[in-house]
Design a protein that fits this description.
- It is a single chain.
- This protein has 282 residues and is mostly helical.
- It contains 14 helices and no strands.
- It has one domain: Glycerol uptake facilitator protein (Up-down Bundle), CATH 1.20.1080.10.
- Helix 1 packs across helix 13.
Length: 282
């Protein structure tokens, strides 16, 4: 009788050790390499956001629409985990290396600032390329209108809602990173990423890097009279309301969401440190 195959995974303690080592590596990346990897991660997340909007834009039922979006969106983090990329939200786990005294505040903040900006540039690059296609005219301009709708909802979101949504989102994103680290094969890593990311999208939580695509995409789409008119027709917006899609609206969302993402990531990283690293220092 053949032996039953066993599923090979890293233990939580091993995942914690790997996270600390990863934090050390990230803190010591050269500036050039960090910028390139951050650019790639921003672009990959933007691809997930773009593709999920295409998939869901003409789905009327809100729950089903979010489910479709949640099924497609994880492709971005999967590309980062299996390929290469420095993602700001996942890098919030570097706090475990900080608490373990393996890196200092300088290395942590250097990485977070450079990676956040690099993610933004990568996202904006994809916005510009998508704008250069005829994609937003899909379904008689409904995709363009849907792109505006997503952006408007985020740009006008209350600060408290954006902050809390950011916390909840990054708890799940960081868990996705940890689950991917636990897995030892490609299938396990894909599933480890897919399930928590699908959950955060389905729940409507807020991801700062995804919003670096969603809001600028809506800003560009709203500048097109046909897409703006369709958004007003379908969703009841006025041209005055669409003026909220500007740089101020972008920052109105990104600042509280980014802070929330940091809190969510620190909660996960600090919990891992308390469980698996604290006794090593005692």
């Amino acid at each position: 009788m053949a032996d039953t195959p066993t599923i090979q995974v890293n233990t939580p303690a091993q995942v914690s050790d790997a996270t600390v080592k990863s934090g050390i590596m990230k803190a010591n990346l050269s500036l050039g390499k960090m910028c390139i990897l951050a650019f790639l991660a921003g672009a990959f997340i933007a691809f997930g956001a773009e593709a999920s909007s295409v998939a869901a834009h003409n789905v009327a039922n809100v729950g089903l629409q979010r489910l479709v979006t949640g099924v497609v969106f994880p492709v971005g983090l999967i590309m980062i985990v299996l390929g290469s990329g420095e993602l700001f939200t996942g890098n919030c786990l570097m706090v475990e290396a900080l608490l373990s005294k393996e890196i200092g505040w300088k290395g942590l903040l250097r990485n977070w600032c450079v990676v956040w900006l690099g993610n933004l540039v990568g996202s904006l690059f994809i916005v510009l390329l998508v704008a250069g296609t005829t994609q937003w005219g899909m379904s008689s301009d409904i995709l363009g209108a849907f792109t505006i709708k997503i952006a408007y909802g985020k740009a006008t979101m209350g600060l408290g809602k954006a902050f809390c949504g950011g916390i909840l989102c990054n708890i799940l994103v960081c868990m996705a990173v940890l689950l991917a680290t636990a897995a030892k094969d490609v299938t396990g890593k894909v599933l480890g990423v897919f399930i928590p990311i699908c959950a955060f999208v389905l729940s409507g939580f807020e991801h700062s890097v995804a919003n670096m695509f969603y809001i600028p995409a809506g800003m560009v789409a709203a500048a097109n009279p046909a897409y703006a008119a369709k958004a007003c027709e379908l969703y009841g917006y006025t041209t005055t309301q669409l003026q909220a899609l500007d740089v101020a609206g972008l920052l109105h969302n990104l600042i509280p969401v980014t802070l929330g993402n940091i809190v969510g990531g620190v909660l996960v990283g600090a919990a891992m440190w308390a469980l698996y690293q604290y006794k090593k220092q005692a």
